Amino acid sequence: MKVLFLNGPNLNLLGQRQPEIYGESTLADIESGVRSQAEGRAEIEFRQSNDEGALVTWVQEASGQTDVVVINAAGYTHTSVALRDAIAATDVPVVEIHLSNIHAREEFRQNSLIAPVCCGQICGFGTASYMLGLESALTLK
Ligand code: CA2
Predict the structure, then answer these.
(1) Using CA atoms, how far apart are residues 14 and 28, in angstroms rounded to an integer?
(2) N or C: which end of the chain has fewer CB within 10 A?
(3) CA 107–ligand 1 middle distance (angstroms)
C-alpha cells in the first residue's frame, strides 16, 4: 500500500512563523511522525510545493503509482479550480486534510473547492490531522 502526501504553498514555513495558528512542528517533523505511524503498514511519499502546477501534475501522475493521495492543499484549497479538476479526473482516492479548522476561520477559508471531489475532509487537529489522514487512507485501499 502506497500513500502519497502532498503539501501546498507555505507549508515549508511551518514551525518558523505563526506557531499560534499552525503549531511548532516543522513539515519535516510531521513527515517523520507520519513515517513512524506508517511503519510496516504503508509506504509513504511526502512532497511539498509552492507551485500550483506541480501539485496538479503530481495528482495527475498518481494513477498507477500510489493507492491513495492525502493532500493539504493549503491556500490552493480555496482558490484552485485546476487542482479540483485534477482531483476530479484521477481514479486515485484523495483525502483532504488541514492543520486548522478551516470552518472556524475567516469566511474565505471556509469554502474548499476540492472538498466535493475528495473522499472526505479532516481538519482542526493540528499535526494529528496528518495521522488521521493516514488512518483514513488505510481504510481506502
Ligand atoms: O490549516 C491548514 O492546514 C491550512 O491548509 C494551512 C494553509 C491555509 O492557507 C489554509 O487555509 C489552511 C496555510 C499553510 C501555510 O501556513 C503558514 C505556516 C507558517 C507560516 C506562514 C504560513
Answers:
(1) 9
(2) C
(3) 15
CATH number for 26: 3.40.50.9100
Q: Is 13 in the pocket of ligand 1 (CB under 6 A)?
A: yes
Grid cell digits, residue 91: 481514479
Alpha-carbon dihedral 78, 129, 137, 109, rounded to 10 degrees: -10
Question: What's the pLDDT at 18?
Answer: 84
Range of the domain at 65: 2-140
100 grid coordinates: 486548522
Element counts in the chain: helices (H) and strands (E): 5, 5
Confidence check: pLDDT of 137 > 80: yes
Report whether residue 48 contacts ligand 1, using a CB cutoff of 6 Å.
no
Tens of pLDDT, residues 21-76: 899 999 999 999 999 999 999 999 999 999 999 999 999 999 999 999 999 999 99
Please give the tally of structural domains in the chain.
Answer: 1
pLDDT score at 67: 98
Please count the other Cβ atoms lying within 10 Å of the Cβ belonging to residue 138: 16
**Whole-angstrom Cα distance, residue 64 to residue 112?**
26
Following CA atoms 69, 105, 49, 38 in sequence, which dihedral angle do they give, to the nearest 10 degrees? Answer: -40
